[in-house]
Amino acid sequence: MREARQAVEYAARALGFSALGVARADAPQGNALKYWINRGCHAGMDWLERHLPARLNPQLVLPGARSVIILTYEYPRSDARQQKGIIARYAQGEDYHKLLSPKLADLDETLSFYGGKQVCFSDSGPISERFFAAQAGLGWIGRNGLLVRLRGGSFCFLSSILTTLDLPVDSPIPNHCGKCRRCEESCPTGALHEGSCDARLCLSYWTIEARNEQDKLPPKVREALGERMFGCDTCQEVCPWNRLPPARKVDPHLLMPVRLARMPLEELEHLEGEPWQHFFAGSSVRRAGEKLLHRTLQRLHSSSEATPSLELNKRDLR
Ligand code: B12
Ligand code: SF4
Ligand code: SF4
């Protein structure tokens, strides 16, 4: 199976992935996920609860699964919005699900040649991608809850391939957070605790996933929203490991198009229906949907009226 691993590594490199690691599909996941859900940290993301058995047992996703391949794909390391309203780095460009799916299908084909059956995901499947990425030695789970790498930090997407092939596996690497607690200390809502993120307090949840009309923004979260319009990168911006250059050149498809970079907040607010669909066609921002994005924009608008001195354009443009 060494040959199969070499072949998939070679193909992944050619397709633009920055690294690949392999873990055993039956690696013991412990109780962290169950505990997290029992405490209600998944907020309104009921699908996480529904998929719990599959998440904890890859055999339910692919009977006969022996290995999990995890791949990293770099995304931009700076914020490109030249107008008010911050969009998290990972969502600045084209929808990464659409970008990565055909690449994963190519890798599936390579592995099929060696007799494997596969299922592939990027963010969309019932599999704990960070857990397997850490098991596969690609990095460690930092106090911000994310996979942090020695080369490239945490600014990357994770993709996963479950396969029936018994591939040579990698070993986990030590945690390099040391005494640092910058992410925990700078999280605007205190959502982080020892590598676990409580979605009920996470601004990323409130600006991307809280699409239920009944979802009422807790006052603490409302106050902390700042200028964020989609997602939140604070616990990554402060991480010293993200000061290092990317592990590989960023795919231009993931860069922010000029029309979005320059679109004033007030004009975004007035986009509705067909024009909204058209403007965000193919963009990762579509995930929030029109209603949630409008709700967030309204809050931004009212908070910027209350605090006119807020200046966004001076944000970190490293
Ligand atoms: C649901 C979800 C969210 C939710 C909940 C966040 C959360 N902390 O889980 C919300 C909407 C808030 C969110 C936000 C973000 N997300 Co998100 N999210 C996911 C998703 C779909 C599932 C994560 C999940 O299951 N969480 C529940 C926790 C408990 O499970 P887990 O983190 O996998 O934990 C496992 C292991 O870590 C392990 N574990 C955890 N702690 C410990 C401790 C010990 C001692 C042990 C042994 C094991 C262990 O056990 C758990 C169970 O197996 C994943 C994709 C995926 N399929 O995995 C992306 C993912 C984690 N998100 C991602 C990103 C980029 C983000 C944001 C940065 C986006 C943004 N800029 O706004 C933020 C960051 C917030 C943060 N600090 O976590 C990336 C992370 C890439 C990376 N470098 O790690 C992923 C992997 C998507 C992808 N495929 O690229 N996200
Ligand atoms: S994404 Fe923002 S709100 Fe969520 S844990 Fe990180 S810093 Fe806190
Ligand atoms: S900011 Fe510090 S504690 Fe948080 S993930 Fe990075 S190194 Fe670890």
Q: What topology emerges from the helices and strands here?
A:
Elements: H1 2-14, E1 19-24, H2 32-38, H3 46-50, H4 52-56, E2 67-74, E3 86-87, H5 96-113, E4 118-121, H6 129-135, E5 140-141, E6 147-148, E7 156-163, H7 182-186, E8 192-193, E9 196-197, H8 203-209, H9 219-224, E10 228-230, H10 234-237, H11 258-262, H12 265-270, H13 273-279, H14 289-306
Parallel strand pairs: 3-10
Antiparallel strand pairs: 1-2, 2-7, 4-7, 5-6, 8-9
One iron/sulfur cluster (SF4) binds at residues 142-144, 148, 177, 180-183, 238-241.
Oligomer: single chain
Distance between the termini: 42 Å
Number of β-strand runs: 10
Structural class: alpha+beta
| Structural domain count | 1
H/E series, N to C?
Answer: HEHHHEEHEHEEEHEEHHEHHHHH
Strand order of the largest sheet: 1-2-7-4
Q: Output the number of helix runs.
A: 14
Helix content: 25-40%
Query: How much of the residues is beta strand, in percent?
Result: 5-15%
Low-pLDDT sequence parts: 304-318
Largest sheet: 4 strands, antiparallel
Rounded mean pLDDT is 91
Radius of gyration using CA atoms only:
20 Å
Catalogue the ligands.
cobalamin, iron/sulfur cluster
Q: Tell the overall outline.
A: globular
Describe the fold and architecture.
This protein is α+β, with helices and mostly antiparallel strands. It has one domain (1-308). It is built from 14 helices and 10 strands. Strands 1-2-7-4 form a 4-stranded antiparallel beta sheet, with helices on both faces. A two-stranded parallel ribbon has the order 3-10. β5 and β6 (147-148) form a beta hairpin. α1 runs antiparallel to α5 (96-113). The chain is globular. The relative contact order is 0.18. Mean pLDDT is 91; it is low at 304-318. The chain binds cobalamin and iron/sulfur cluster (SF4) (2 copies). One iron/sulfur cluster is lined by residues 142-144, 148, 177, 180-183, 238-241. One iron/sulfur cluster binds next to α8 and α10.
